[in-house]
Design brief:
Blueprint lengths: L2 E10 L2 E11 L4 E5 L6 H8 L6 E6 L2 E2 L5 H7 E4 L11 H11 L5 H11 L15 H15 L4 E2 L2 E2 L1 E5 L7 H16 L3 E5 L3 H7 L2 E6 L2 E6 L1 H4 L2 H8 L3 E6 L4 E6 L21
Parallel strand pairs: 3-10, 3-11, 6-9, 9-10
Antiparallel strand pairs: 1-2, 1-4, 4-5, 7-8, 11-12, 13-14
Helix pairs in contact: 3-4, 3-5, 4-5
Bound molecules: adenosine-5'-triphosphate and magnesium ion.
Length: about 280
């Protein structure tokens, strides 16, 4: 019942982007993929969703996904891309219903409204997508994905959410709401694979973490195993410190701040995360 990617290699425009990535995710867990910009996170997700050519093998619950027909994949996993552009004047409800066209289920209209409600957009059914804020659009897309694989476990096994930065454009309250929703999907037996930039939310919500760096897996395991000072500072190229809050017990990360008295790095116009 596992998602296992073995030795995934991808080249884009003749340049190698993924150099033999091994990745594993279990249903019942939230698995976060983290790593710097350009490290290959989206490319890995696009390989796992059969969106670009790769070598290696990706097995979903024992089956090679390259051999699964599209209609069966659509019933077992739903995909939230990093960016979704909609060219036509669809309403929020119509966007959510697009997910249901990929995989039919009972009571589609009611479920679509429920999906909007779950992402905090009750009453938005008739609103035009183009007239929504960036965060609202992002949550409509999440509702579309949810509506596609509504029940975390189906007759043919666990279902999966593959999400590329699901909380990137959300405020802190909606970030927590969406992460709670994903944790709940996993707790009810579904699989969640989410690309994340927020390492603090990753520390709180992820059961497993894969850290990509320059097209390779730099570390993979529990948050405690992966989110360490040395591993993160090495991958992101800036000094980071992992801390423990006593009550309630939680892990959190802080960047090292300016170290020159009277002259912060910020004031100098550079970033502590960008090597000079
Ligand atoms: N079509 C393409 N042709 C050539 N190179 C590409 C193409 N698409 C992506 N790349 C390169 O592949 C690398 C990995 O890109 P990818 O989108 O997977 O990064 P990412 O880890 O998702 O980054 P981000 O955090 O910025 O979303 C980057 O260096 C990018 O410039
Ligand atoms: Mg990306």
């Amino acid at each position: 019942m596992t998602l296992i990617a073995t030795d995934i290699r991808v080249s884009l425009s003749d340049a190698p982007v993924l150099h033999g990535v091994g990745f594993r995710a279990e249903p019942g867990e939230v698995t976060a993929i983290v790593g710097p910009n350009g490290s290959g996170k989206t490319t890995l997700l696009r390989a796992m969703t059969q969106d670009l050519p790769y070598t290696g093998q990706i097995r979903l619950d024992g089956e090679d996904i390259a051999r699964l027909p599209g209609w069966r994949l659509a019933g077992r996993r739903a995909v939230l891309p990093q960016a979704s552009r909609i060219a036509f004047p669809f309403t929020a409800l119509e966007i959510v219903r697009l997910g249901q066209m990929a995989a039919a289920g009972p009571a589609p209209e009611r479920r679509a409204s429920e999906a909007l409600e779950r992402v905090g957009l009750a009453g938005f059914e008739g609103r035009f997508y183009q007239e929504l804020s960036g965060g609202e659009q992002s949550r409509v897309q999440l509702a579309r994905v949810l509506a596609q694989v509504w029940e975390p476990v189906g007759r043919d096994g666990p279902r999966w959410l593959f999400l590329d930065e699901p909380v990137a454009s959300l405020d802190i309250g909606h970030q927590l709401e969406v992460m709670d929703l994903l944790a709940d999907y996993a707790a009810r037996g579904g699989g969640v694979v989410a690309i994340m930039h927020d390492l603090n939310l990753t520390a709180i919500y992820a059961d497993r973490v894969a850290l990509l760096d320059a097209g390779r897996v730099a570390a993979q395991g529990t948050p405690a195993e992966v989110l360490t000072d040395a591993t993160l500072s090495g991958a992101y190229g800036c000094p980071l410190r992992v801390n423990a809050a006593p009550a309630p017990p939680a892990t959190f990360l802080l960047p090292h701040m300016a170290r020159r008295p009277g002259r912060t790095r910020h004031q100098r116009g550079d970033s502590p995360c960008i090597s000079q």
